[in-house]
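Fig. S4 source data, part A: sequence.
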Amino acid sequence: MTPSVFIPKQNRLADSNQSRELDQRTINEFGIDGFTLMEIAANGAASHIQKKEGSNRKGLYLCGKGNNAGDALAVARYLVNDAVHSIKLLFLLGDEDLSPDADKNLKLLQQLKKNGGDISFLEKVDKAFSEEYDYIVDGIFGTGLNSELRDPLPGFINRLNTKNTTVYSMDIPSGLNADSGNIHGACIQADFTFTFGTNKLGLYVNAGPDVSGEVIFVNLPFPNYLNHPKTVLIDETLIKALPDITRTARHKYEYGVVHILAGSEGLTGAAVMAAKSAWKQGAGAVFLYAPKKLMPVYESLLPQIIKISVGDENDAFFKPSHIKKIIANIENKPGLLLTGPGIGTDSKTKDFLADLLTQHEGFTLLDADALANWETLSNLPDEQKKKWLLTPHIGEAVNYLGAQFNSDKSRLHWSQSFVKKHGCSLLLKGNPVYFVTSDGTTFLTKYDTSAFARAGFGDVLSGAIAALAGISSNQSLAVIKSLWDGYQKLCEHPIHYSTFGPEHLV
């Protein structure tokens, strides 16, 4: 991403350590005290609850001992004072040894109670189930939780989750790990989660999306110069903050030239979809190189694409002898190289790719079958690989790149480690999609990308990325825009699983 692009605060994902450090540095270095930060967070959450629930409502507040409880207590104070709510408080771990800010908020609530506020304290857990409430506020545990819950908490939480009552969680649902998205034995099933100051990575991986409900970002005055995590959430808010990709060129070979090495006998469809996609995204010129035997297929299906045949009439896959002609044309008409879709894994094709990529030093997108040769390609110089983008799906990552993972978080960790080791960029498909740039910046999709897992969609996506990267000269921007555009097109066809295929995208 270009340095001039501002990433909205709610799109910057932080782990628990980053969140804690940002909070402490804002207090100790920037000079805004913790109680003030808690007030701003609580006011934001209370405003949303009041807007959703209205006035004169009855709420159950579940509190632990830390600042998460302090957030809940401050929210209770606002709603008692400003919306005439009736509040019942249950301290599941006792009300002694609270954090200083939580204790201060408890004393403020007690002062409101003395002066007519409808506030009561439940001394027994079973009392929480003896009557009905309009809503429940979860302030038991915050982002610091990193161990299994002890009895009787799991049983209480599981029982609470059976109640048909709207639940609002403070910062993160209690029981959810803020980093991994794993559940520590049991977890509050929230309808809404207010994430304060930083958006938490655990809300978007593993079980996070299933238990967090609607995530609402509540801004805190953390200074931007302290707030720079390297993980970014892709959603509509981010898309609106990014510049458009518009091609302004004097001729067809200026900005957005795409060279495609794809297809082999029986696999020509992948090349067709990649080429059509690059053309539809606005590429100035799309060159499709094909073994001569396959050229009749492309002549009939791709009239708008510039087709260059290599080899003789019997060649149905790429061979090392084809390289010279291809390299000469790429040097004559500089652009981006996309290779892999349907290209096959014949040993001669693998040799062809290895030799060609040794000679080609421009931006290259390696997809599908091109990744089968990674053991050889990985030995090329790191400076060359910095210009590469690999776009495997999960199976290709495992089979070709040696990936090992068993969860969303381990898949993310593997992606980041792979990029750090090899210096290239990586787009790992799945749900969510992970995109790690060569400098280590990580992007992940907030929206459901399970519909991407269809034969042909990867070919369409690769063609779109290649075209937009050529037009914008910005690989990261091209990837993000292509992921979002593909999602939007699929959303336009709600019955796509039965009638809508990748060919409709191009």
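Fig. S4 source data, part B ends here. Residues 34-53 form the longest helix (20 residues).
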